[in-house]
Write a structure and sequence with these properties.
Elements lengths: L1 H4 L2 H4 L5 H4 L6 E2 L11 H12 L11 H13 L8 E4 L2 H12 L5 E4 L6 H9 L3 E4 L3 E3 L2 E3 L2 H9 L3 E7 L11 H14 L2 E5 L15 H5 L5 E6 L12 E5 L1 H10 L10 H13 L1 H23 L6 E3 L7 E6 L6 H9 L1 E2 L1 E2 L10 E5 L4 H19 L1
Helix pairs in contact: 4-12, 5-12, 6-7, 6-11, 8-9, 13-15, 14-15
Bound molecules: pyridoxal-5'-phosphate.
């Protein structure tokens, strides 16, 4: 599989943020980009467009149908293409859901530790008030604290919830029962649920993703934000899908301004169609590789357990959330300064991120080993 084929020299040729943000002596294992070669059908679609000098504005009409076919194939859940809006990225989908389905002054629940733009999108883009209900950490993993959610939803100020499913950074795949409980609470207290399901196709062997809208039902005040961008490693191309229910789709179609769709890229549309339609085998192969890499990471981190490193095995995607004792509040800062490796600082993920870092393991075993060797060496220095 291509994940294994790319050398560090080839990866360092890349111009994307993962490979350009830090100086050349830093080994990056941070932002959610994968060290893979493109799925052949996507590469072909993009090459063909370049050959045609086909670089105009996007025409996205086929995306909703392609998404519906894909979700039916992947989760036996067929959504109605009429209820899909095509937007540039998932965070725009979340922002538009908040802006069009909630009101200024409303409180919006999120579950830290969480993907940092959730904080800023709720507060700064949508101008709503954050209500934090942290995930519960248990020895078997992280979970949504349903009692705390019930208390939050019962507060009349709380009118919305941005659900991360699967959850970034912990890789939690929420159970169908949990999602059912959320849907029931949301219906009872009339809370709008906005499900970010960008990592869903990357659910790894051993876990099963349940699309939120499939349990919430047609009249739920809910949306789902999906995209091929994480799964097929095309986030720079810009194409995401905002899916409504019977009760929200009409409102979104009516209220989301045309300008909000301007961020959709023509290459994003072409890449997305090639991904959903013609790159399903590639995805199956990728999941096998990521599963193996997760196992490798598990054994390497186990050998650091006696030096204060702990983690919970992610059930989805290629990001792992680690607690590192002995490197202070922000282990990522120390690892960068002393080990010349870049992992994500836990701090922007919210209060539970103190003493934590997020590592990206979507790379070859060789590169991952280099990152972990450097991490181990820094930890050893501080332990002695
Ligand atoms: C949970 C989650 N939502 C959204 C995004 C960003 O997606 P987009 O670039 O489509 O806004 C990411 C990127 O890593 C993510 O992890």
């Amino acid at each position: 599989m291509a994940v294994d084929d790319l050398s560090l020299a080839q990866l360092r040729e890349r111009r994307s943020v993962k490979w350009r943000y830090y100086p050349a002596d830093v080994l990056p294992a941070w932002v959610a980009e994968m060290d893979v070669t493109l799925a052949p059908a996507i590469a072909e679609a993009l090459h063909a467009a370049v050959d045609r000098s086909d670089t105009g504005y996007r025409w996205a009409d086929e995306v909703p149908g392609a998404l519906a076919d894909f979700t039916e194939y992947q989760w036996s859940w067929r959504l109605d293409p009429e209820r899909v809006l095509v937007l540039g990225d998932v965070m725009t989908g979340i922002a538009q859901s908040l802006l069009q389905l909630t009101d200024p002054g409303d409180h919006i629940v999120i579950n830290p530790p969480i993907y940092p733009p959730f904080f800023s999108t709720v507060e700064k883009v949508a101008g709503r008030t954050l209500r934090e209900v942290p995930l519960m950490a248990g020895k078997d993993g992280y979970a949504i604290d349903l009692d705390a959610m019930e208390r939050a939803f019962a507060d009349p100020l709380v009118r919305g919830y941005v659900l991360c499913s699967p959850h970034n950074p912990t890789g939690t795949v929420h159970s169908a029962r949990t999602l059912q409980a959320i849907a029931e609470m949301a219906a009872e207290h009339e809370v709008v649920v906005i499900a970010d399901e960008i990592h869903a196709p990357l659910t790894l062997p051993g876990a099963v993703h349940t699309p939120y809208l499939s349990v919430a039902g047609d009249d739920a005040r809910a949306t789902s934000c999906l995209s091929a961008s994480k799964t097929w490693n095309i986030p720079g191309l810009k194409c995401a899908q905002l899916v409504g229910t019977q009760s929200t789709a009409e409102v979104l179609h009516e209220r989301v301004p045309l300008e909000a769709t301007f961020g959709v890229g023509h290459f994003g549309v072409l890449g997305t169609l090639a991904a959903y339609r013609d790159s399903r085998d590639w995805l199956a192969e990728l999941l096998t590789v990521l599963d193996a890499r997760r196992t490798h990471l598990e054994s390497r981190l186990a050998s650091l357990a006696d030096r204060g490193v702990s983690w919970v095995r992610p059930q989805a995607s290629y990001l792992a959330w680690m607690s590192i004792d002995g490197l202070g509040e922000d282990p990522a800062e120390v690892l960068l300064a002393e080990g010349r490796i870049a992992v994500n600082s836990g701090l922007p993920f919210g209060a539970p991120g103190v003493g934590h870092a997020r590592i990206n393991f979507a790379t070859s075993e060789t590169v991952l080993d280099e990152v972990l060797d450097a991490m181990g060496a820094v930890i050893d220095t501080h332990a002695s």
